[in-house]
Amino acid sequence: MNNIVEKKTMYDTVMQQFNKTADAIKLDSEIRKILEATTNEIVVHFPVKLDDGKIKIFTGYRVQHNNVLGPYKGGLRYHPSLDINDAKALAMWMTWKTSLVGLPYGGAKGGIQLDPRDYSLSELERISRRFTYALGDNIGPEYDIPAPDVNTNEQTMAWIADTYMSTKSASERSRSKHVVTGKPVGSGGLEGRDRATGFGVFLNIKLWYQSKNESLKGKTFIVQGFGNVGYWVSHFLSGEGAVLIGVQDAHATLYHKEGIDVVDLHNHCKPRKGSIKGFNGAKEISAADFFGLDCNILIPAAMGNQITSDNAYKIKANLVAEGANGPTDAEGEAILLNKDIIIIPDILCNSGGVIGSYFEWLQNRNGEIWHLEEVMSKLEKKMTEVFRKVESIVKEGNIDWRSAAFILAITRIETAYKQRGIFP
Ligand code: GLU
Hints:
By secondary structure, this protein is of the alpha/beta class.
């Protein structure tokens, strides 16, 4: 007998979710074959000169899952655990997400296998630029449009846009600005793109409570990850009177029953490469105790496959709002659903980011400048619309939220394939 138990991957999770939906909607078997596969899987190995003068070879990925609804779209992450399998899973989730939200995009994801903490800013700049150069025309403003993801930000996007544009002829340069979204506002970025994902997570939570005629005031929440998503969702939730009582990142787990001050914690993180460790407005507890904290809302906003059969049984929150991509694996999900815990799934819950990206892309393409109020009200309108659609499928079918979101997303793609047929 084989005693080695293979660890579940994000790819396992996304495929289980896809297969469950395909069975439920009796997805056309030919279309199923197409959607199971990733269209392009690009792996690049590229050299970069480090600060000490030595050359290091880095490995970067870009997986393009499907573009039936429009150009490939999705983030680039810098993480030591990123591999081709993760990129495939994350690219598929992007296809479902853009379809669910009704954007004219397909799905892609990629990044570089590295820990950004190991490199200086100028090394990260050279790595990002050389990666862009290595990807060449595998990305493009009307073909595949990257964006920020885990450990990448507007600065990364500025380097990528600049490098990509610099490789184009002078006349093409300014037409290529929308090769990436999530750029700094001064360089073609969208006002509010920074908070778009966190705002969307917040809005989903708020709408869910509204449907039950409850307000956010006094609700307690815990957040895993205090990066861009974790911070902004905490900001908006606390603005409505909800109380952050626990937070966890890769370095520490903090708890304070009376509430953790979001602004103070954010200020603490800034000079510490984003880490919450050492914050004195809460006490540090064991990482294993995080999921079991007594609260109303749990927001995983870090990495994939965090809620599993190892910890799902401990969860006391009655709402899990997925800020991260793929934070709950199939076994974890089954346990939560059994306990009647509601999961607002990633492809709905964190879709504010890619909606913001779509607005930025339109702004660049049309040579417009949108104001923050305009962006936030359009974002709110779009997200509310999608939330309501998913909610009605949940109610009609008496099914869970992920199943409902996946049914909508995959049915839309199936319809497009049926209308168009397969070339030749
Ligand atoms: N990385 C984000 C996500 O996973 C944003 C992608 C985008 O804006 O293209 O949805």
